[in-house]
Amino acid sequence: MSQLNIKQKQQFMRNQPLSSLNRKARLASMSEQTFDLLIVGGGITGAGIALDAASRGLRVALVELQDFAAGTSSRSTKLVHGGLRYLKQFEIGVVAEVGKERAIVYENGPHVTTPEWMLLPFYKGGTFGPLMTSVGLRVYDFLAGVKKQERRKMFNVQETLNKEPLLKREGLLGSGYYVEYRTDDARLTIEVMKKAAENGAMAVNYAGVESFLYDGGMIAGALVRDSISGEAYEIRASRVVNATGPWVDELREMDRSKEGKTLRLTKGVHLVFDQSRFPLRQAIYYDTPDGRMVFAIPRDGKTYFGTTDTDYKGDIAHPTLTEADRTYLLKAANFIFPSVKLEATDVESSWAGLRPLIQQEGKDPSEVSRRDELFISPSGLLSVAGGKLTGYRKMAETVVNRVGELMAADGKRITVPSDTKHMPISGGDVGGSRQFERYVKERVEEGRSTGLSKEEAGRLARRYGSNTPKLYELATLSQSFAKEHGLPLALAAELIYAIEEEGAIKPEDFWIRRTGRLYFNIDSVRQDQSGVFSAMAELLDWSDHQKLLYQEEMNRCMQMAVSPTS
After folding, report:
1. pLDDT exceeds 80 at position 85
2. How far apart are CA 309 and CA 354, in angstroms?
3. Dihedral-angle region of residue 427 (phi above 0 means left; psi in -120 to 50 means alpha; beta otherwise)
4. In angstroms, rounded to a whole number, what is the distance separating the alpha carbons of residues 335 and 329?
5. Per-residue model confidence (pLDDT) at position 454
6. What separation in angstroms does the CA of 127 have from each of 122, 131, 133, 168?
7. C-alpha distances in angstroms, 172 versus 155, 163, 255, 336?
8. What is the pLDDT of residues 241-262, one digit of tens each?
C-alpha cells in the first residue's frame, strides 16, 4: 500500500471541473440551481452541444448514464471521414458538409486527429472501376473542399502494389489515393467535454435519468440517479436535449413522445491484429464480394479491420462480437489480402458498436442514411437522432440554434453566435496543425527532464497536445507513487490525470476510453492491470464492494474483447 498522505493526494487532485473526486459535490450543486439547458448523453453529440451552448453563454448541465464516450463514441471506425460511400448513394449534401468538417475537426485538435492517406483499389468485376473511381474522387475533392496537396491521385497496378504489397493481385486494375482523417474517437469526445467544462458546463458521468420533471405539462428537468453512490438528484433546466445515441427512443418513450420516425440500430464490429501477423503498410478502403465497404488501417503497431453492418436487437449497453461477425470479417480480410491467411487465433482484440440510424423501410443496413435529425416533442424535449462522428460540431451548432429559437419565444435570447469552428478543443492549443510537429519536438526535451524516456515523452505530447505539461508535472510528482504500485512512470501520470481532469471512475474507463489500450495494446493491460487497480482503489477510496464490482466489470471487458459470443 502506498504511503500517499492527504497533502500529497490534494497535490495530485486539484479540483478540476471534471475531477472524479468532486463529482458528488458537483451533482449536489447541479441539483441546487436551474440551468438553461440539460443535456442527457455524454457521447460526442452531447459533448459537442455542451461546448457550443456553454461557449455562447448558456448555463449547461450534462449527465451520462455510463462513462463519457462509453457508447458509440468509443466504438466507431475511428475515422473523421468525408463519407465517400455516401457519394455512391448520391447523398451529395452529406458528402459536402462532413467533408468540410473533417478539416475543422483536425485543425481544432491535431493531437487526436491526423491525416491518413487511403488507398481504394479497384478490381475487374468490382463495384468501382478506373473511370468511376477517378471521377468519384474528383467530385469528392470538390464537394469536400479538399486542400490542393491532399487531392486524389490515381495509380496503376504496379504503383498500387508498391503502396501495399499484401493486396490481391488477381484482377487488380489500379487504385485511387485520397486523404481521410484518423482519430481517437473516445479521446476526441473527452477533449470536447473538457473544453465544454472549461467554458462552464457542469458534466457528470455514471448519472442516469430515471424520469423527467414537468411543469404544466412542459419538460423542466430530470430525476438523475448517481450509479456510484445510489443517490438521486433533481436537475432542473429550461430546455432538455436527448442526445443519448442508441438510447434516444428509450428516452422518447419515457417522455411518452415516441411517434413518427424511430431509430434503427445497426452493429459494427472491428478486429485488431498485431502487425507481426498482419503487416499492413497502407490504409485500405475496398468493397467486399457482397458489396459492403470495409477499412483496413495500420495504427501503433497493430492493424484493425472492419466493419460489419447488421441490424441489432440486443443489449444496447453491451453489443458484442459474435462468431458470425468474426467469421465474416476474417473472410473479407482474406479475400483482399490472400497471402496473410488470417485465422481466428490471430485476433488480438476487438470492439462492437451501435449506429443509431433513422429507420428507413426497405433498405439494407448499409444503405440507411447517416443524416441527423432533430425531433421536438409536445412537452418540449429535443431529441437528436442519426448523424456521424465527423459532423458532431455542425450538428451541435444546429441544435443550439434551435434551442435559441425556443428560448426566444420565452423572452430570452442567445446573443452570441457559435464560434466552435475556430475554437481549439482541450489540448488543441498547439498553434494549429502546421505547428503540431514543432510543438511535440519542443515538449519532448521538457518531458525527458522529468524522468521520462524520449519515446514516452513524445507519446504523451502527441496524445495530450497542449495539456502535456500537466502530464509532465504529474510524472515529476508521482515517481514514488508509481514505484509503489509497480507502474511505469508515464502510465502513472496518465492515470492520475485521467482521474483528476477526465472523470475516470473505473479501470475500464482508463483502459478503454482514456488510453485505448484494451484495443491497441492489450498486453500492456494484462501487464499493468493490477497496479492500475490498486492505484485507483487508493486514490478513489474504493470500498470492498466497489473493488469486487469493478474487477468483475474489467474482467468482462477483457473477455468481450477477445472472445466472441455464440
Report:
1. no
2. 9
3. left
4. 10
5. 96
6. 8, 12, 10, 16
7. 11, 13, 54, 10
8. 999 999 999 999 999 999 988 9
Among the ranges 88-92, 133-137, 346-350, which has the highest mean pLDDT value? Answer: 346-350
Nine cell digits for residue 363: 433498405
Mean of the per-residue pLDDT values of the chain: 92
| Residue 245 φ/ψ region, left for φ over 0, alpha for ψ in the -120 to 50 degree band, beta for the rest | left
C-alpha cell at 189: 469526445
- 146 has pLDDT over 60: yes
∠ CA 139-143-144 to the nearest 5 degrees? Answer: 115
For residue 327, give the C-alpha cell: 467469421
Please check whether residue 189 is in contact with residue 66, taking contact to mean a CB–CB distance below 8 angstroms.
no
Reply yes or no on whether the pLDDT at 2 is more than 60: no
Cell numbers at 356, concatenated: 443509431
> What letter would DSSP give residue 512?
I
Residue 328: partners with Cβ closer than 8 Å, 6 or more residues away: 308
* DSSP 8-state assignment for residue 565: B
Count of other CB atoms within 10 angstroms of residue 12: 17
What confidence tens digit (pLDDT) does each residue in 371-388 have?
Answer: 778 999 999 999 999 878
d(CA 193, CA 198): 9
Q: H helices of 371-488, where?
A: 392-409, 436-448, 454-464, 468-477, 479-484
Neighbour-count burial of 405, counting CB atoms closer than 10 A to its CB (0-12 exposed, 13-18 middle, 19+ buried): exposed
- Reply yes or no on whether the pLDDT at 6 is more than 50: no
CB 351 within 8 A of CB 519: yes
The residue count of the chain comes to 566
pLDDT digits (tens, 9 = 90+) for 38-74: 999 999 999 999 999 999 999 999 999 999 999 999 9
Q: Is residue 362's pLDDT more than 70? A: no
Give the list of residues 6+ apart from residue 152 with CB closer than 8 angstroms, or none: 134, 137, 138, 140, 141, 146, 176, 177, 178
- CB-CB contact of 547 with 537 (8 Å): yes
Query: What is the H or E stretch that residue 532 is in?
Result: helix 522-539
| Cβ atoms 23, 540 nearer than 8 A | no
Number of H helices, E strands in the chain: 20, 17
Task: Give me 345's grid cell.
Answer: 487465433
Residue 64: φ, ψ to 5°: -135, 130
Q: Phi and psi (nearest 5°) for 326?
A: -65, -45
Q: How many CB atoms lie within 10 A of CB 57?
A: 13
Cell of 196: 465544454
- The share of the chain scoring above pLDDT 70, in percent, equals 93
Q: Are 221 and 237 in contact (CB under 8 A)?
A: yes
What's the rounded Cα separation, in Å, for the pair 201 and 217?
27
Q: What pTM does this model have? A: 0.95
